[in-house]
């Protein structure tokens, strides 16, 4: 039965893809021979949107296939190191608005998860969804305490749907990589695996709640960013309850201007929030599209951002941060050799790569960027160029940097939509240089000592005992070493004597043989034969002498 369902699902996908003319993607591959078969089993000879570009047709097809495929398209739009620009640009337009599921189903999920009726927890529950996305939908409600909240509810049976679709995607990816070198180059199976991992995190709302709480903690009492409160008593794997926020959507630029918001300050603050999340906290919101960002315009000259939907977050370790900061600074100094060296030092590219050759490739990719005005230079596109160039030198994709690249593109696009004259470099450069100074300067050393000092003081009384124990262990190890050294010396002597015995035996045998030949050749004169025989016997006796090893 499961096989029949999978076959039916595969036919549905095939019919949709063929109807939108997407079988053309097979043309430059060995799989082109399958196009007639795909068309035959599509049972449809009508083509939709045949006058549109391939990227637009792919977007429309994924939208028709449903929530999981919309989410896949959104993820692919961030993989500009794999996907051609025209397709990535079109997929980036995918909206996460899908048909809502019924309010009765939403109520049932909430009550099952909370183990209580809605009336026992909420004084009011709005049955009309506030928003509906591919994984969940949101309803407004009011707690018995009078606090206004929103309830995020997973779609019913979403896990089963995801597993079904992913199972088929894995099979298709394996099949494609088996028969297509292009699919292997694009590492289709890796893309599906990354998608699987992303979805796995998104379908457990406790993970999103934990991310939200952590981001809120990082910006507690900050005038830059506000993150709504999570109500943990009412949060489960399929239900999350958070504070309801009020603000102006970041994409409504006309309304923001009408409210008197300082647009330059708003754009600059967005850049500062991004770099603070990345370099100060190593924890950044990786889904900062306009639908997830609002603005508190209470103080128009100091507008405060409001962030929601923390399902996808990125993290960086200290090495990643130093790598990025040094790369950005080296890029604007046009120090391409330093960029090449940083890739090798980070371990992402083999040490045997030719630095001059890699440097030349980076220069060819980056120099055209400097033909633009400084305010038009994109950090995000610089990273895309850099990663694409590095891949030619066998650099493996770093997932955390792919998320960062996606977020940076969002931030840049949003910032320039708010304030077209935004110079991201002017805002970012002082921050990056200060951060690097703080990492390697006296202040950083002082902070490290201050952090480690309590542990050092705790261990200080134990140091004499630890030294004594280690000295004893060292003495024992040295004794073992001396003993081992003597055994090795004895073994070498034994081998030497054994080698000498073998030589004596060979020489003795040779003299014995010569003695016999002399006797046969001169039977009347046995004296030479006897002398040679005695010498041979002496060597043979020597070879049998007991070997003594001291």
UniProtKB/TrEMBL annotation:
SUPFAM superfamilies: Protein kinase-like (PK-like). CDD domains: UbiB. It comes from Kangiella geojedonensis. One of its GO terms (biological process) is ubiquinone biosynthetic process. Pathway: Cofactor biosynthesis; ubiquinone biosynthesis [regulation]. The chain crosses the membrane at residues 505-522, 528-545. It comes from the Bacteria. This is Probable protein kinase UbiB. One of its GO terms (cellular component) is plasma membrane. ATP binds at residues 130-138, 152. InterPro entries: ABC1_dom, Kinase-like_dom_sf, UbiB, UbiB_bact, UbiB_kinase. Keywords: ATP-binding, Cell inner membrane, Cell membrane, Kinase, Membrane, Nucleotide-binding, Transferase, Transmembrane, Transmembrane helix, Ubiquinone biosynthesis. GO terms for molecular function: ATP binding; protein kinase activity.
